[in-house]
Amino acid sequence: MKKEIKKDMKITGRIFKWLVLVISTIFFIYPVIYTLSMSFTSKRAQYFLVLWPLEPTITNYIEAIKRSNILSLYKNSIIVTGATVILVLIVSSMAAYAFARKKFFGSNFFFYLIFLALIIPPISVFIPLLVQLKNYHLINTYWALIFPYTTISVPFATFILRNFFKTIPVEIEEAAKIDGCNDFQIFYRITLPLSKSALGAVTIFTALAWWNEYLFASVFITNNKMQTIPAGIGRIIGTYWMDYTLLSAALIIALIPMLIVYLVFQRTFIKGVVAGAIKG
Amino acid sequence: MKKNFFKQLKEQKNAYLFILPALILFFVFFLYPLFSTFRYSFLDWARSVSPEGFKGIQNYINLFTKDTIFRVSLANNFKLVFVIVLSQITIPVFLALLLDAKLKARAFFRLIFFMPAIISTVIVAAIWKYIFYPNTGLISNFGRILHLDFLNYVWLADERIAIYIIALVMIWQLTGYNMVIYLANLQSIPEEITEAAIVDGANNWQVIRKIKIPLLRPSINIVTTIMTIAVFKLYELIVFITNGGPSHTTNVLTFYLIKRVTTGFHYSYACAIAVILTLIVVVLTIIINQVIFNKKYEMDY
Asked: Is there a single domain that holds both residue A53 and residue A89?
């Protein structure tokens, strides 16, 4: 008798669990599916669109590519994000190495500065940055984004990499020192190759954050041809809002690169994001 | 002795070389502008290429005494902090607990739930605005097909509803992300602990309530912090979904600050907002971590 009740509860529990999971799945994926269907639906059929494309067509994509510069935005985003990631990796791994392995005058002070940067939101430097970038004649160049992006990412990346470098046994480096390696050789030949997983995590959360960044991107680069995807798509939304089937094709084109990277590298991707969240 | 000193200096020289690039970037593009924000906030600077004199704390006085939009924005930020933090220490915990149990499809659900977090917020905003758009959007389409006329409504123009739509979109974007954080935390709990409890006669619910949830404390702390910061960073959703309206009911600080720069060129006034915003975020971060969660920072220096 008691066993039966327990069994019943187990079955209800399982039904409830799957119900929640299915409803959540629909909630999270439906808006994207809807936009995808919209992008393949003809303009006059969109009023009845609920799930699958009505009067399927690829005109929206052809029109979106022809009438907006969405494809050329890819190039800008790749350059800005790529350069930022490379700079962040170089600059922060060097700094992290010093903090992990060297005792030097002011090391505590500099490390506290990093902590400071971790809790101050980027908006707090926005206006002077705009003024400075104008003075340096960097507005409307890729550097207007690469420098601020790199600077904002470096403290956090340094923090993560320093913690990782500390887990590498010092003996390995000392052995290399006896063999005649200098600091730079040790760093380049031993520490970095041993830190691929941490460098991978830094790459992922840096790339994800800046690939999608809008505020700086829309103000520091106003030239349409130089804009990154978020800034460009922001402009395209303004222009084609009344033509939503075309716009949804542009939205899909804009989100596809990151989606592919996500689907291919999902494990590394999620791990990288968790590493990014937890150590902060 | 002397040799030792030089050796140390040489050692230090390399250390400085290693941190030099980071320091240069940090000073030029972070510390100096941070200081400038503070300085500008005391100046008289609007609609001109350079500051036109000293204004003292007048900008701050105006903010708190004359500027109703600022006060509304501040209140909206706190309202959203409440809704978002509350939702994000419950819904994703619940989902993580469901996925933590032995489940073959875990990877699939994690993939789906996390996906919104990789989409640019600008795109997210456009998608959701259209879902709530009157006459042609998804919800009104449902209304038309099911003959439920009340669904065809100006959702985003309703002063009582608009801000909760913003909250809903944030929940859509952030739940999967936070769930992944909780899940990582849950999976780091050694199986021996839960097994021992089950051997001692604890049921599933007791294991969750007495063991798993207390052990989730570190990730609840992290999520509370990240979500509070995320709400004060909120910008794109407001720009593209409601543009601050209807009648400022979705105005938030970051949005208001940028509006002051791009439409009025009120540099020093916007800087005063930035200073207040920064102080709020820093103080809240400290309160959350030190007072509420009583976190001990382990500095291994």
From this structure: no
Q: Residue A45 belongs to what domain range?
A: 2-57
CATH no., domain B67-292:
1.10.3720.10
ipTM, interface predicted TM-score of the complex: 0.91
Best residue of B98, B114, B120, B256 to probe chain A, by most A CBs closer than 10 Å: B120
Distance CA B37, CA A127 (A): 7
Instruction: Enter the pTM of the model.
Output: 0.91
CB contacts, 8 Å: A88 with chain B: none
Same domain flag for A158 and A233: yes
Could you list the mean pLDDT of each consecutive 10-residue stretch along chain B, which spans 301 residues?
63 85 94 94 81 84 92 96 97 93 84 94 95 88 85 88 96 95 90 86 84 90 93 95 90 94 86 95 90 62 35
User: Do A244 and B270 make contact, defined as CB atoms within 8 angstroms?
Assistant: no
Asked if A111 and A12 sit in the same domain, the reply is: no
Contact call for residues A119 and B281 (beta carbons, < 8 A): yes
Helix (H, G, I), strand (E, B) or coil at A212: coil
Which residues 93-122 in chain A show a CB within 8 A of chain B?
94-95, 97-99, 102, 104-105, 107-108, 110-111, 113, 117, 119-122
> How do residues A66-109 score in pLDDT, each as one tens digit?
888 888 899 999 999 999 999 999 999 999 999 988 888 888 88
- From the list B226, B240, B250, B244, the residue with the least C-alpha distance to A230 is B240
